[in-house]
Each structure stands twice: as structure tokens, then as C-alpha cells.
């Protein structure tokens, strides 16, 4: 059984072989496979915008993770009101005494007006809080969306019908309004009206609400993808050999869904960063004195006409992060799904 | 034909797809009668060709046999065992014996799995551990289907259509099946590649003694491949016979029309006339009464509209040659006047 095809077909078989050979020669090595993931990675590496954005995004995550370490080396923390130790830092109107918001070799990013906290560490910890919450909410949103979407799409029938109606209803809500309306409700569930709300509960409530209103988009998208995939013949081929539904979902469907999942995740994170900051800005998320991007912008907005410097740091850093992450998201999409380009 | 103990025994096989409609409460408002009462057998090692125009229910039949779909009525017996409504667990021991080759080589291989994984998948699922390991078996299978065994860790997108279909064949062979349902395995391929894949399948069929249900939309390919041929039209079998009987002595007008469209087929020794069927295939939602072919048949009478012709051995047929027609063709039958002749096809 070594000669695969009858001799009559041999010339054409040679054509087949040359096709195989030419693919080999373009690859780095004969046995090395060009997996779809590897091809996407190669495409991504060629995309300058994407690579630069990735570095910027990584930088933000590194400083967020390393915030305590940086603060220690720098020798300050975001909670101490340095002005009460050294009143000369603020002037008579409680604005930084030095030029440029009190920027100095001591206080790199200056002094916060009124309370006199250190802007640099406050921003570091603020980024840490905001990114932490947004990242947790993104992961949870994607997980919930993926599980619900795949379940609805794969099972179909009544499950699909009910899930789809729930998604329709959720997507028809004006979400920003509901965030603002729902946050106090969530707090109310756990804490008596007059009690102090602990910061961890605020973070948890933010993650819950952001997830509750966010999963529907991803679920709908994945449901559609699964509906298309489950009719594909390779799924039938798996069924014919006796594959269990679990195996079909995890081994046949899921590997084909990583692209939309990763794309959605990267596009979701910056929107959740702004949403989190927005809610904190409006006073229903994280509140002062916990450092947070949104809190900082909220404080900055109360005195930006007198001291623009303070507003500048959280504002510019957030714009930089969101823009970089969105560009990264676009590049990731182009790399994973080159057909969608332009 | 010794059909006393066939490998596959299908009787009265029916699949109606419900059509849902109505608002606000969705209910069944009709049915697509995709397959309607099929009877046929396949013996071990035999190849049955299933031929018919697009939409006549060939794929549905294939998917019913492989139990990818639940039949509406009828029975499917495999080696005497009724598997018509068997669940996944009950089917498990049989799954490895009935395999399928699909029409579209681009959709039938998971783009995210390596060829090795695709071919080893069936072994993994059925917990088969061949001597020397699964990878060795994968290489063997790749060699059998004429691919480079070293390519087992490549991805489907690195192969051409014909090569992909060979991978599909290797996957079907991985479990050493007794029956393979091949649903138009070459119709998506270049004409130049078609012959190669058919030759491969023929080799597999003969050397490994695997029975085939070979689905095709014209009689040309089946002629070289199948010992027995069934002609389908709108969900019903019009004629079923051993190859020589069907090609040399077609008794059903539809078979005759199909044969006249086959380039190298010679119905008679006389100059061939192409029978061009006029009109469209009627909708399977509302098929014609009586004989389903009557709207396009040049011999139709009132009897054809009122009475469905049974699939029987009509006079003049050899045993095993069954025809569903009230007025079967004879070698002398001259194409009727209503029949249009196609001058281009004759040229
Ligand atoms: N899942 C389904 N739901 C509803 N109708 C269906 C379904 N699958 C097939 N049909 C209908 O059943 C009929 C037979 O379809 P089938 O795919 O079996 O035809 P076929 O002979 O394989 O055609 P082709 O040569 O185009 O592949 C068609 O009218 C088709 O529209
Ligand atoms: S039964 Fe009548 S309509 Fe049907 S094929 Fe025979 S002659 Fe034609
Ligand atoms: Mg088909």
C-alpha cells in the first residue's frame, strides 16, 4: 500500500506534491507547522502601531502592579497629607505654593491642592485600582458572555430563545443611566443606609454591575458564531465518530472562538476603564480617599481653573492608556482576522 | 444479490423537516418532505451509489444513516441491530463502524487542529490505542491516502482541496469502519483531481473491503465506483439496480433522462439523443401527488397523478432491479414527442 494512487493519476499527484513542497519552502522548517495563532503573531509583529501600543499598555500594567514597590522606593504614599506636616507646601488659598502645581524633586508630579497629598503616588495607586477593577470586570464579563453565548448557540431551541430575549432586553437599556441607578441598589443590599461602605464592597459592586450590563454583547456575538460553526461539517464529523457534546464544545468549537473572544476582550477593557472612572467621577463608584483614576479626575475638576497641573496627570495618562489600548485592540483584530481589515 | 443478511438495512426511511411559522405562537405549518420512504440494503463490502439532482434528499439520507439526524419514520438496521432511534451511548460501539466523508473539504476539517489531531481524534474519542501509538497510525493513514506522513503537524489551510479530501478519507479510515457514507466526496474538487480521489476511494473499498454508500449528483462517477445504484428523485427511490442492469436497461424515464446526460454513457448503440427534462424540480414541501416525477415526465397519465407507483421488479427486470413506474421504458421506447431535443449536447 505504498503506491497511493494508480499510475494513471501520477502526473496529477506530482502537482499535488509541488503544492505541498512550496508550502514547505515558505515555512521556516519542514516539520514546523504554521498554526493560525503563529501566523497571527507574525502579522501582529509587523504592525508598528500595534507593537508600540502594546508597550504602552504593558507599561501601564507594570506600574499598576509595581505601585507599592515604586512608592516605597520613592518614599511616599498616597494617603499622607504632606501639607499638614510641612504647611509651606501650600499657599494661603490651599493651592500648591511652588510653580507647576508644586512639582519638585521631592514631589515629582506636584502636590494636591487643599489636602496636600502626593500626586505621583496617588496617580500610581489610582491606576492600580482602576485597572484592577476594569480587568476583573472584563474577565468576568467575557467568561459570562462566552459561557452563556456558547450554551445558547449550541443547545438552541428554548434555551436559545429565552437567552436571546434576555440579551435583547439588556441591550435595550441605556446602560450608563442604569449603572448610576443600580450602584446604590447594590450597596443597599449589603450595607445599612447609614453605614460606611467598605472599599472592597465598592469594588465588588462595580465589577458586578459592569459585568451584569456587559456580558450581553459578547454572549450575542458568540451565540451567532456558534450557530454558524455548529452546522459546519467538522462538527458533524466529530459527532459521527461519537464525540460527546463537551468534547465538541471544548475541542471543536472553542478553538475557533478564541479570535472573537480575544478581540472582544481587548476592545472591552478600555471601555470598562472609562466606565469605572466615570462612575467614580460621579460618586457612585470608588470614593475619596481611596486612590482611583476617576476620583482623581473628579477632584481635579473641582479646581482645574486654579490648578490645571493636578488635572493634567490623571487626564493625560487616561487618554494615553485608552487610546493605546484601543489601537492595540484594532491591531489584534487585524492580526487575528486579516479579512476584516479596513 | 444476497440480501438475506445485509450490513445495512433501511426500510421506509423518512425525514420531514417541520416548517415553523405563525405569530405570536410558532407552530408547525408544514413539512419539507426531504426523504420519503426509502428502502434499500447494503451488503458488506458492497458499494451502493445514490444518485439524484440537487435537493432530492441525498445528503439527508446520508445523515440519517450515520444518525446525525433523527428519522421521522422508518427503520435503520445495522448488522441486524435496530439503530433508528439509538442514543449516543447506545450508538457508541457502532460509531466506529459507520463513518462519513463530507462534501466540502474546506468545512469538514477543523481549521484550528493539526492534521494529526484531526485524524487521531476518532481514535481518542473511542479510546483506541493502536500498537505503536496513535501518531504511528496517523502516519500510516496519511501514507494510505497518499499524503506525506511527515505533514501530520500541519494545519488544514496548508493543503489543497484534493489533499484535504484525502485527510477526510484518512479520518474516516482511522476507526477501520465497515461502512462509509461518502456524501458527494469529489463534487467540490477540480475535475482533474476528482479522478484521483475516486481512485483512492476505490482502492480503499477494494483493498480494505469497506462497504460504501456513495452519493453523487450524476451517474458518471458512480458508474465506475458502485456495484449497485439507486436513483432518487424528490425524496423517493425511482429505480435501484445492479450497475449493468441500470446502465444497460434503464426502465424508469428519469433514469433514462439522467443517463442521456452522462457524456460517455451509451443508452443504445444508435446515435444518442439527449433527453432534456423541462421544468423545475417541484418543491419537496408540496410534492406532486401519485408519481413524484409526473410533472416532468413525458409519459405521464391520469393514473400517474392518482396512484403512486410502487418500487417493484417490473416485467423484464432482472432480480434485484426495482423500478417505480407505471409505464416502464423498454429498449424500443422512442422518446415521446413532448420531449425536446438538445442539439448542442448531441454535438
Ligand atoms: N435542516 C434542514 N431543515 C429544513 N430543510 C432541510 C434541512 N436540510 C435539508 N433540507 C431540505 O431537504 C431537501 C433535501 O436536502 P438534501 O440536502 O438532502 O439534498 P441533496 O440531495 O443532498 O442536495 P445537494 O445535491 O444540493 O447536496 C432540500 O429541499 C432541503 O432544502
Ligand atoms: S409513473 Fe408515470 S409519471 Fe411516473 S415515471 Fe412512470 S410514466 Fe412517468
Ligand atoms: Mg447534499
UniProtKB/TrEMBL annotation, chain A:
PROSITE patterns (alphabetical): ABC_TM1
InterPro entries noted in UniProt: BP-dependent_transpt_permease, MetI-like, MetI-like_sf, OppC_N
Gene3D superfamilies: MetI-like (1.10.3720.10)
Entry membrane topology: Multi-pass membrane protein
UniProt keywords, alphabetically: Cell membrane, Membrane, Transmembrane, Transmembrane helix, Transport
Cell location: Cell membrane
Entry keyword Transport: yes
TM segment ranges: 52-71, 131-157, 169-191, 203-222, 267-288, 308-329
GO biological process terms held by the UniProt record: transmembrane transport
Annotated spans, Disordered: 1-36
GO cellular component terms given for this protein: plasma membrane
Superkingdom to which the source organism belongs: Bacteria
Record domain ABC transmembrane type-1: where: 127-329
Main location (coarse class): membrane
Pfam family, one: BPD_transp_1
Entry similarity comment: Belongs to the binding-protein-dependent transport system permease family.
Protein name, UniProt field: ABC transporter permease
UniProtKB/TrEMBL annotation, chain B:
Limits of the ABC transporter domain: 8-259
Keyword Transcription regulation: no
Keyword ATP-binding: yes
InterPro entries: AAA+_ATPase, ABC_transp_ATP-bind, ABC_transporter-like_ATP-bd, ABC_transporter-like_CS, Oligopep_ABC_C, P-loop_NTPase
A biological process term (GO) from this entry: transmembrane transport
Family: Belongs to the ABC transporter superfamily.
Protein name (database record): ABC transporter ATP-binding protein
Amino acid at each position: 500500500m505504498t503506491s497511493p494512487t494508480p499510475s494513471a493519476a501520477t502526473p496529477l499527484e506530482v502537482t499535488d506534491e509541488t503544492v505541498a513542497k512550496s508550502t514547505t519552502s515558505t515555512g521556516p522548517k519542514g516539520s514546523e507547522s504554521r498554526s493560525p495563532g503563529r501566523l497571527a503573531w507574525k502579522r501582529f509583529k509587523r504592525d508598528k502601531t500595534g507593537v508600540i501600543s502594546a508597550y504602552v499598555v504593558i507599561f501601564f500594567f507594570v506600574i499598576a502592579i509595581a505601585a507599592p514597590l515604586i512608592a516605597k522606593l520613592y518614599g511616599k504614599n498616597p494617603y499622607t497629607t504632606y501639607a499638614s506636616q510641612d504647611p509651606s507646601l501650600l499657599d494661603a488659598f490651599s493651592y500648591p505654593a511652588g510653580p507647576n502645581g508644586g512639582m519638585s524633586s521631592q514631589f515629582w508630579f506636584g502636590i494636591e491642592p487643599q489636602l496636600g497629598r502626593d500626586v505621583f503616588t496617588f496617580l500610581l495607586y489610582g491606576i492600580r485600582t482602576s485597572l484592577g477593577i476594569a480587568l476583573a470586570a472584563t474577565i468576568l464579563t467575557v467568561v459570562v458572555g462566552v459561557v452563556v453565548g456558547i450554551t445558547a448557540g449550541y443547545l438552541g431551541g428554548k434555551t436559545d430563545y429565552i437567552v436571546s430575549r434576555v440579551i435583547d432586553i439588556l441591550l435595550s437599556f441605556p446602560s450608563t443611566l442604569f449603572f448610576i441607578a443600580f450602584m446604590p441598589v447594590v450597596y443597599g443590599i449589603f450595607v445599612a443606609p447609614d453605614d460606611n461602605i467598605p472599599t472592597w464592597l465598592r469594588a465588588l459592586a462595580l465589577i458586578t454591575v459592569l459585568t451584569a450590563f456587559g456580558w450581553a454583547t459578547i454572549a450575542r456575538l458568540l451565540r451567532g458564531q456558534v450557530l454558524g460553526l455548529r452546522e459546519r461539517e467538522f462538527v458533524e464529523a466529530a459527532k459521527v465518530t461519537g464525540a460527546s457534546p463537551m468534547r465538541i464544545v471544548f475541542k471543536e468549537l472553542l478553538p475557533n472562538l478564541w479570535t472573537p473572544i480575544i478581540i472582544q476582550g481587548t476592545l472591552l477593557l478600555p471601555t470598562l476603564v472609562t466606565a469605572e472612572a466615570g462612575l467614580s467621577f460621579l460618586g457612585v463608584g470608588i470614593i475619596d480617599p481611596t486612590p482611583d483614576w476617576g476620583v482623581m479626575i473628579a477632584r481635579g475638576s473641582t479646581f482645574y481653573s486654579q490648578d490645571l497641573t493636578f488635572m493634567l496627570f490623571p487626564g493625560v495618562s487616561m487618554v494615553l492608556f485608552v487610546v493605546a489600548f484601543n489601537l492595540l485592540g484594532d491591531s489584534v483584530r487585524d492580526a487575528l482576522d486579516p479579512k476584516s481589515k479596513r | 444479490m444476497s440480501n438475506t443478511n445485509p450490513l445495512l438495512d433501511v426500510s421506509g426511511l423518512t425525514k420531514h423537516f417541520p416548517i415553523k411559522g405563525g405569530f405570536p405562537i410558532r407552530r408547525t405549518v408544514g413539512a419539507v418532505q426531504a426523504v420519503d420512504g426509502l428502502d434499500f440494503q447494503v451488503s458488506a463490502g458492497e458499494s451502493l451509489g445514490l444518485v439524484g439532482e440537487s435537493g432530492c434528499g441525498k445528503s439527508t439520507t446520508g445523515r440519517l444513516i450515520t444518525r446525525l439526524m433523527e428519522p421521522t419514520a422508518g427503520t435503520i438496521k445495522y448488522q441486524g441491530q435496530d439503530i433508528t432511534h439509538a442514543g449516543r451511548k447506545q450508538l457508541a460501539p457502532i460509531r466506529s463502524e459507520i463513518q462519513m466523508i463530507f462534501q466540502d473539504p474546506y468545512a469538514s476539517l477543523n481549521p484550528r487542529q493539526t492534521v494529526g489531531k484531526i485524524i487521531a481524534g476518532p481514535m481518542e474519542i473511542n479510546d483506541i490505542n493502536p500498537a505503536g501509538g496513535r501518531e504511528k497510525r496517523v502516519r500510516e493513514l496519511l501514507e494510505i491516502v497518499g499524503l506525506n506522513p511527515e505533514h501530520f503537524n500541519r494545519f488544514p489551510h496548508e493543503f489543497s482541496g484534493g489533499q484535504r479530501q484525502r485527510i477526510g478519507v484518512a479520518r474516516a479510515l482511522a476507526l477501520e469502519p465497515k461502512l462509509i457514507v461518502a456524501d458527494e466526496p469529489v463534487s467540490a474538487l477540480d475535475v482533474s483531481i476528482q479522478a484521483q480521489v475516486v481512485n483512492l476511494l476505490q482502492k480503499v473499498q477494494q483493498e480494505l473491503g469497506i462497504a460504501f454508500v456513495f452519493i453523487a449528483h450524476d451517474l458518471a462517477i458512480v458508474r465506475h465506483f458502485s456495484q449497485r445504484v439507486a436513483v432518487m428523485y424528490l425524496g423517493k427511490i425511482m429505480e435501484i439496480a445492479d450497475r449493468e442492469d441500470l446502465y444497460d436497461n434503464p426502465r424508469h424515464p428519469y433514469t433514462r433522462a439522467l443517463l442521456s446526460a452522462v457524456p460517455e454513457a451509451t443508452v443504445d448503440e444508435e446515435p444518442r439523443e439527449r433527453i432534456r427534462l423541462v421544468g423545475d424540480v417541484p418543491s419537496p414541501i408540496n410534492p406532486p401527488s401519485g408519481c413524484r416525477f409526473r410533472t416532468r415526465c413525458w409519459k405521464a397519465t391520469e393514473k400517474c397523478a392518482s396512484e403512486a407507483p410502487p418500487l417493484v421488479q417490473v416485467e423484464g427486470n432482472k432480480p434485484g432491479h426495482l423500478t417505480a413506474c407505471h409505464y416502464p421504458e423498454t429498449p424500443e421506447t422512442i422518446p415521446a414527442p413532448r420531449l425536446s431535443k438538445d442539439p448542442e449536447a448531441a454535438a
